[in-house]
Known about the structure:
Blueprint: H1 2-27, H2 34-47, H3 53-56, E1 69-72, E2 83-90, E3 120-124, E4 132-133, E5 148-160, H4 161-164, E6 173-184, E7 197-199, E8 204-206, E9 220-222, E10 229-231, E11 244-246, E12 251-254, E13 268-270, E14 275-276, E15 293-295, E16 317-319, E17 326-327, H5 332-336, E18 342-344, E19 349-353, E20 366-368, E21 373-377, H6 382-388, E22 392-393, E23 399-401, H7 417-440
Parallel strand pairs: 2-3, 3-5, 4-5, 5-6, 6-7, 6-8, 7-9, 9-11, 10-12, 11-13, 12-14, 13-15, 15-16, 16-18, 17-19, 18-20, 19-21, 20-22, 21-23
Antiparallel strand pairs: 1-2
Amino acid sequence: MATSHLHLFLFFLFTAPSTVCQENNDDAPPQLPPSEQEAVYRVLNSVNPSILWRTTFPDDLCASPSDGVVCDYPDASSSTSLHVTELHLGYVSDYTQNPPCSSNSTLDPLLFTSFKHLRKLFFYKCFTGAPASLPETIPEEFGSVLEELVFIENPSLSGDVGVLIGNFTKLRRLVLTGNGFHGSIPNRISGLVSLEEITLSRNSLTGGFPATSRLKNLKVLDFSHNSLTGNAPDSIGDLTELLKLDLSYNAFSGEIPPGVGKLKKLEFLDLSYNRFGNYGVPLFLAEMPSLKEVYLSGNLLGGRIPEIWKNLEGISGIGFSRMGLHGNIPASMGSSLKSLWYLALDNNNLDGRIPLEFGLLESAREINLENNNLTGQAPFSDGFRDRVGKKLKLSGNPHLLLVKDSVPPLAGEVLSSSAARALVSVCFTTVFMVLYILIKQ
């Protein structure tokens, strides 16, 4: 009996530890592969070599990662290994503690070869000092699962934008704004059919408008502040989900494409400061019921301001400066646009009176009518002028009168009782004086 108990004790003594260890190994959390961890250290060191990344984060970077480094399983069915799925680098705000970039940041090519499971890549104000550049080539397999590629305010980062735009079949957001990228936008962008946003503003891009008609999910298209040329294609109208279209500050020419009028969901349209010309303010604007802001300034479209505003009551911003417009300002702009907060009609050849209805634009916060040929008395009360302040701009109209405390009533408007009493008093005094003079004679 004693012998059997001894055997049982020895059995547990020598087998239990190995079982426990085995169980502990099974329960050990998955770790980041060593090669991928090394690549993270290299990338962090390239954007800020003054931080001792290996000392600060000596353990597994998925178990205790730096801010801005996100690990996850590559797909829902996997539970065996973790990988880096997001990298957010650089300053966004005091409330977002991404790894900071230094003034001599560089871009380590390992970024494009070592993270095959990367879904989001963000650089915010990282490359602002010493020159940095994209690699000359980026492997085709980079970004096979990438969903968001964002480079914002990196003016010293240069390179051909075509190198960076790869075969990203799952990409939803492509935001490259305020960088030093150059070259033309490649037509292969039309193959990125999952895209919902393309923002390539404030770079040094050249060439023509790329093929985009296949991007049926696109909600934001922003090519502003570049040097793009040629005609904007009528196929823009195929992007029926667009909410924002911004092509401002380029050198597009010819006619504003009529296809823009097919964008029934569009809320923001900015085509200002291009070379569109000689076709007048497009009448198709009246067919865009969702439009909230429209800016066409700096294009010599010419013609008169059309009577389309009864169909656009939701508009809050209009920019029609420096367009070669002539004729009167339609009264319907004042009577229909009750939500209008910004109106710029300056530096045109507009004439006639400012419609009395403009004095009733209660939502207005800025009205610029400078440098036209407007005449008569401006219909803005003291209260209106106090509310808008210096953003009510009327100079450069030599024959326009701005009379303090004097606002003509709208046609058909009944005088207030106090005004009526004052008018009767003036009339009575005048009659009395005439009679007095006649009697004296």
